[in-house]
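Objective 1b. Sequence-to-structure analysis of Putative fatty acid hydroxylase.
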Amino acid sequence: MVIKPFTVDLDKPLVFQVGHLGEAYNEWVHQPIVSKEGPRFFANDYMELLTRTAWWVIPLVWLPVVSWLVSMSFRMGLTLPQVALAEVGGIFIWTLMEYVLHRFLFHMKTTGYWGNTIHYLFHGCHHKHPMDGMRLVFPPAATAILCVPFWNTFRLLSPPSVAPALFGGTLLGYVAYDVTHYYLHHGKPYQRLTQDLKRYHLNHHFRNQSKGFGITSPLWDNVFGTVPSTKAAEKMSNQ
């Protein structure tokens, strides 16, 4: 008896299907479907709603938090130059986090049912449907949960007065990342810098998905040798 490989039905909610792909999941998820119409994730309408986030929600939610964190450091006695230095340090920390998370967590290979399912929710869905604008930025509720261990780490490793501003800078870097990421997919850049960033990122999606992990900057790709070839997805970058 020949067992047919599992086939995903794109007309049905996807999340609880993709786990059945097993070892075929990695190949399937890296064959992008270029459409601004995103798939349905869950049969339950409430669960479905939680997976959809407009890009402007990110600065609306998190920039006040950044301001509050900065004000905490001021109230604890830091001067303006000290707060500014902590903010810049936090942004720099984010650039490394952006690279490490994207390369080692979001691009980890999975084969089991739950591994595939969780990976699809975190990042696989973005590679399968890269132009789905409502699932491009990270939902604030999920970000808030992930912030807890990072905040505790910052408090443990830095002075009490520095930790809020340093974490605020990291959070500010995250906001810049998510907004930039959305723009690279859906904006039409006219400046050389943003044009190059868009070409660089779309090259990661449509040409070489095992390199080019930096979104806001190729800095750490250069450091760790994961810069892709100079040929990029020119056609996609002009859309």
